[in-house]
Specification:
The structure is a single chain. The chain is an alpha/beta fold and 484 residues long. The chain folds into two domains: 271 residues, 3-Layer(aba) Sandwich (Aldehyde Dehydrogenase, Chain A, domain 1), CATH 3.40.605.10; 186 residues, 3-Layer(aba) Sandwich (Aldehyde Dehydrogenase, Chain A, domain 2), CATH 3.40.309.10. The chain is 39% helix and 22% strand. It is built from 14 helices and 24 strands. It has a seven-stranded mixed sheet with strand order 14-17-18-13-12-20-21, with helices on both faces. Strands 9-8-7-10-11-23 form a six-stranded mixed sheet, sandwiched between helices. Strand 5 and strand 6 form a beta hairpin. The protein is globular, with a radius of gyration of 23 Å. Bound molecules: succinic acid. Succinic acid binds next to loops.
């Protein structure tokens, strides 16, 4: 029996249920089984999805009628319980997907931050009264929840990507059916336990894990009672969900791949630029959608920047993610390592120089790697590597840096380093991205809008923008009975 016995083989609809089928979640640390998880694949998934839609609809009829203050109270308790169980949640995350334990603790705080933000935001969902053309008419725009939401979350943020979606949805009065990533469902189930302990009513939040989520997902996507789909993950899967959502005209939010450029201008504070770009690049072993993928440095400072960057990458501790000292843990699985290796081989074959790293130290642990001489035709300059590899390219003119940075179908996050305010402002405006960090390598926060342009997605999560995604606007026109 694992330390996560309480959630093993269980899934949540209007109550906890036990599945007779299960799949193992294996740790990227050593391949050991972290927990046996309920497997709602195939027919079991189709049946569970049908039941989940029934439950979500019935619960929505009740939840939408609670006051914003009642919903806020439940969210506040959920937030407190997450912090109470911070260590347990962090350990689950590290075991199931390999994030260094100190980063996992940070993620629990980040995840709880969304819950606190939307507990507060619940009571600030204001409608509007607006002027009309007729003296006897009064007009209102009311805000109401969109309805039951289906959410699909990724493995790289097992807690924060759940709460970034669930907290605004639940605050708005929607109900929430969650399909967690196959690699990291343990944290999601623990969060659901805490939601119930916080007093989350039956059916408001459901969790349906599956080794093969397609049958389950197809049923939920076809059900007209599911009014919204929210997804974080690959552009490829996002496209399928976008197409499927057309059938029942669901509201949709997609947070898809990125390919973040990091521009270092010749007037930048190089030491700070190195610190910020290292944090941005090697966070979660390079496995976040906003991690720097391409570093463009002005040719006149390229060598001093690269030398300092290499030294900083070599100082990172690669190791067991449960150790307090570890900065970079293992990649999530063999497929992830395979992609990193393919990208490296391609870059070296096209003329890049490996300045440090360049190989797996053992198993899924990949050495922090820095390449110089990167050029636009290399695979890693065209698509996300999703690993601890930093390719450095150079530029001579600001407009070349911006052109290369924008030469991608993706537009999630971009970064730039300069001391010149005009250059910072103009470059931020010219970058076709949803998020721009100016002298800031880690801009994500619960109160800020997160999301991309182009093929990086639709919609925004976080801050007041995040709850808008779960609200409808209803126009109410009132004709007063006196006058005309
Ligand atoms: C992501 O990789 O999708 C999330 C990263 C963040 O919230 O900073």
């Amino acid at each position: 029996m694992s330390e996560f016995q309480a959630i093993e083989r269980r899934y949540l609809t209007d109550a906890w249920r036990t599945s007779d089928r299960a799949f193992p979640v294996r740790s990227p640390i050593d391949g050991a089984t972290v927990a046996e998880i309920a497997d709602l694949s195939g027919d079991a998934g189709r049946a569970a999805a049908k039941e989940a839609a029934d439950v979500a609809w019935a619960a929505f009829e009740r939840w939408r009628r609670t006051t914003a203050f009642e919903r806020a109270e439940v969210l506040r308790r959920w937030h407190d319980l997450m912090l109470r169980d911070r260590e347990r949640l962090a350990r689950a995350m590290t075991l199931e997907m390999g994030k260094p334990i100190k980063e996992s603790r940070g993620e629990v705080a980040y995840a709880a931050g969304f819950v606190r933000w939307y507990a507060e935001e619940a009571a600030r969902v204001y409608g509007t009264e607006f002027p009309t053309h007729a003296p006897h008419k009064r007009a209102l725009a009311l805000r109401s929840p969109v309805g039951p939401v289906y959410a699909v979350t990724p493995w790289n943020f097992p807690a924060a990507m759940v709460t970034r979606k669930a907290a605004p949805a639940l605050a708005a009065g929607c109900t929430f059916v969650h399909k967690p990533a196959e690699q990291s469902p343990v944290t999601a189930l623990l969060l659901a336990e805490l939601w119930r302990e916080a007093g989350g009513p039956d059916g408001t939040l459901q969790v349906l894990p599956a080794a093969d989520p397609v049958p389950l997902s197809d049923v939920l996507m076809a059900d007209p009672r599911i009014r919204k789909i929210t997804f974080t993950g690959s552009t490829e899967v996002g496209r399928i969900l976008y197409r499927q959502s057309a059938e029942t005209i669901k509201r949709i939010s997609l947070e898809l791949g990125g390919h973040a450029p990091f521009l270092v201008f010749e007037d930048a504070d190089l030491d700070r630029a190195v610190v910020e770009s290292i944090a941005c690049k090697f966070r979660n072993a390079g496995q976040t959608c906003v991690c720097t993928n391409r570093i463009f440095v002005h040719a006149s400072v390229a060598e001093p920047f690269t030398e300092r960057y290499v030294a900083a990458a070599e100082a990172l501790v690669l190791g067991d993610p449960l150790d307090e000292a570890t900065d970079v843990g293992p990649l999530v699985d063999e497929a992830a390592r395979g992609k990193v290796e393919r990208h490296l081989e391609d870059a070296v074959a096209k003329g890049a120089t490996v300045r440090t790293g360049g190989r797996a130290e053992s198993g899924l642990r990949f050495l922090p790697t820095v390449l110089s001489g990167a050029t636009q035709e290399m695979l890693m300059m065209q698509e996300e590597t999703f690993g601890p590899v930093a390719p450095i390219a150079t530029f001579d003119r600001d407009e070349d840096a911006v052109r290369m940075a924008n030469a991608t179908p993706f537009g999630l996050a971009a970064y730039l380093y300069t001391r010149d305010l005009t250059r910072a402002w103009e470059t931020a405006e010219a970058l076709d991205y949803g998020i721009v960090g100016v002298n800031d390598g880690v801009p994500s926060a619960p109160y800020a809008p997160f999301g991309g342009t182009k093929q990086s997605g639709i919609g925004r999560e976080g801050g007041p923008w995040g709850i808008e995604e779960y609200l409808e606007t209803k126009y109410v026109s009132i004709g007063l009975q006196r006058g005309s």
